[in-house]
Write a structure and sequence with these properties.
GO terms for molecular function: ATP binding; metal ion binding; ribokinase activity. This is Ribokinase. Catalyzes the phosphorylation of ribose at O-5 in a reaction requiring ATP and magnesium. The resulting D-ribose-5-phosphate can then be used either for sythesis of nucleotides, histidine, and tryptophan, or as a component of the pentose phosphate pathway. The chain has about 290 residues and is of the alpha/beta class. It has a single domain, classed as 3-Layer(aba) Sandwich (UDP-N-acetylmuramoyl-L-alanine:D-glutamate ligase). The chain is about 30% helix and about 25% strand. The protein contains nine helices and 13 strands. Helix 7 runs antiparallel to helix 8.
């Protein structure tokens, strides 16, 4: 089995600040670090480090070879990442002393994927493989439809949130990831709670309260509590959780076990500054003491 990720690849420029800026305020950064990031890259690294074969579908610019090399180092299959003329995407991330963040995103090459590139990649997937999408690339609707037709398990992480983007892929989804705010926004846009949109499985992350899974097939609701840690940087925590859940399902774990393992990985990850580069591997996650 494999996970196919149509996902963004970014350079994350992380600025440590005494507090998050208010409108019109100028702040001197306490530190600057560059990491591999992008919701897509984060999820690919998380799923690969959790033990799955992950094929990343994406694009970088002429300045992006380092990002592809870094993904390879973490065990991600990069054969379906194109290098194009558009600059690599990047994010400017401000992190305060409490670990909260603000993010400015430049999509760059992430929004220049082609139908030919997508078709070449997804046609290599096998029935029962997982296809995951986020809202940081183009071709989401086309990919979701193609995945459903090929018998893939189509999953969507609805961030950065856009109601139209979510609704465009809803008819093809098997698993939907939302945070608490996104779930409220989607209900406002559709007039229905996320649990009544026809998606088989819905996972809503609740921050410090943990995560909740809704199974449409059984009607069961599963709550997984968060683990008590002191957060240094929460950037990418949701991506780490998502990647680990998908890897757990890919490796045949039941949903409760996949979510509990993902909760451990995300809790460990937020104790470190950075994004994809600091996602823990499976052994580290299993051995961690909380």
């Amino acid at each position: 089995m494999a996970i196919w990720n149509l996902g963004s690849i970014n350079a994350d420029m992380v600025y440590a600040l005494p507090h998050l800026p208010t409108p019109g305020e100028t702040l001197a950064a306490l530190d600057l670090q560059q990491f591999l990031g992008g919701k897509g890259a984060n999820m690919s690294v998380a799923a690969a480090r959790a033990g799955s074969h992950v094929c990343h579908i994406g694009a970088v610019g002429p300045d992006g070879k380092w990002a592809v090399d870094r993904l390879m180092e973490y065990g991600v299959d990069t054969r379906y990442i194109d290098q194009i003329d558009t600059p690599t995407g990047h994010a400017i991330i401000a992190v305060d002393r409490q670990g909260e963040n603000q993010i400015i995103l430049f999509p760059g090459a992430n929004r220049e994927l082609t139908n030919d590139q997508l078709g070449l990649a997804v046609s290599q997937a096998g029935s029962g493989d997982i296809l995951v999408l986020q809202n940081e690339t183009n071709m989401q609707g086309e990919a979701a439809k193609m995945g459903r037709e090929l018998g893939l398990r189509v999953c969507y992480a609805a961030a950065p949130f856009d109601a139209e983007a979510v609704q465009a892929v809803l008819p093809f989804l098997d698993l939907l990831f939302l945070n608490e705010v996104e779930a409220q926004q989607l209900e406002h846009a559709t007039g229905k709670p996320a649990t009544e949109l026809g998606v088989s499985d819905v996972i809503i992350t609740l921050g410090a309260k943990g995560a909740r899974h809704f199974s449409m097939g059984t009607g069961e609701i599963l709550d997984i509590p968060a683990l008590p840690v002191t957060a240094v940087d929460t950037t990418g925590a949701g991506d780490t959780f998502t990647g680990y859940v998908l890897s757990g399902l890919d490796r045949g774990l039941p949903m409760p076990q996949a979510m509990m393992l993902a909760t451990r990985a995300a809790a460990l990850m937020v104790t470190r500054p950075g994004t994809a580069d600091v996602i823990p591997d499976l052994k580290e996650t299993q051995d961690a003491q909380f």
